[in-house]
Amino acid sequence: MTDKVRIDANDVTEVRLSADGTRVLLSLLDDRGEKVSLSLPASCLNAVLSATPRRAEPGSVHRLDSWNMAVADNGQDLVLTLRTPEGLAISFTLKPWQVEGMATIATYGATQRGQPKILH
């Protein structure tokens, strides 16, 4: 069994796709200034990007491609996952009453209290 290697990169000098497009090839400089090459399957990039914290720009709006909702591990809360067409995904833990509030707004339009709608 071989020892695992940890590379603490200080700089990325090159990023490119392999000739067949299945791998992302990274050239890095480690903390001693030595060049290190890393090859990752292209299919894992969404997982890498999802793990990277990003600050949302004020006023930024993204298109929604798909969403799903499931029961959280605690059996009481819900997990809402939203996905963009570009493959970005973010998940939120919600209380059932929060989902009910969103459904009410989506159904009846606004949060303003006006004339109640009459359903026949």
Structure description:
It is built from two helices and six strands. With 120 residues, it is an alpha+beta fold. The model has no long low-confidence stretch (mean pLDDT 84). The protein starts with 8 loop residues before the first strand and ends in a 12-residue tail after the last helix. The protein has two domains: 9-52, no CATH class; 62-109, no CATH class.
Can I get a quick summary?
The chain has 120 residues and is α+β, with helices and mostly antiparallel strands. It has two helices and six strands; from the N terminus they run E-E-E-H-E-E-E-H. Strands 1-2-3 form a three-stranded antiparallel sheet, with no helix packed on it. The chain has a three-stranded antiparallel sheet with strand order 4-5-6.
